[in-house]
Amino acid sequence: MYTFETGGPSAQEGEDDMVVSRQVDLLEPIDLAEHLGKVELYLGQVCQIAGISKMQLDYWTNKAQIPTKGKKQRIYDIDALETVMLIKQAKDKGLNLGAAIDAARRFRERAAENPSARAEV
């Protein structure tokens, strides 16, 4: 059995670190909020995020008339996900489904009228 010891980083490794450091310095933070409008989620993904069953989501989508895309499989955008999560929150607080849908709708309307209030919530 042989063991080899090195005396620390080689000159090549030091140069590689400098190149990587310069490359990293070129990057800027990304504001993901700017891109959320492009997000599309399948039914199962929405269920996983919201913590509800597929049967619940299907029923809520019909009852609350949540807009979806797709023909063979429903595709939800970020606004639809927010609506589902608001309904879930209202249901968790004891509202029946009809009241939860109304509360979610009113919350979204109020947020649309006063966008700065949404950031404070």
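Next protein, fold it too.
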Amino acid sequence: MNLRKWIRELVAVMREEDLAEIEVRRLFTTVRVRRPGGEMTMPAAQPAIPVEAVGAGSEAGEGAPPRNLIPIKSPMVGTFYRAPAPDADPYVEELSSVTVGQTVCIVEAMKLMNEIESEVSGRIARILVENAQPVEYGQTLFLVESESAA
């Protein structure tokens, strides 16, 4: 089956099932189709939460909701890794402090490991991507509660 026909069939399935995104893997080929404006789907254990919802106090029982949430976004398409090696500790955890220039994760693209650094000082309020998951250009990876007023 040629790739163009395969993609058309995936788009038809997306329309029939009202899906925002679909990914199919066959042997050494992976095809992901996403509707324009569709957000990356998150695993059921960690639903996607927009920045506005987090800032509006989506977590009950934590007192005042975090303010000054600054996203750290992926500068490229690739695979997200929280640690420098499979057996190593993650660069950051939720609620850990970060400084400008501190490495927060790795995005692997074309077998190159690209260290992603924080551009803001603060505290990691939320990690939005699971380890070893594919990420898109501009996708928010972390939300940082900034120490300074934004």
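About the second fold: The chain has two domains: 1-38, 63-150.
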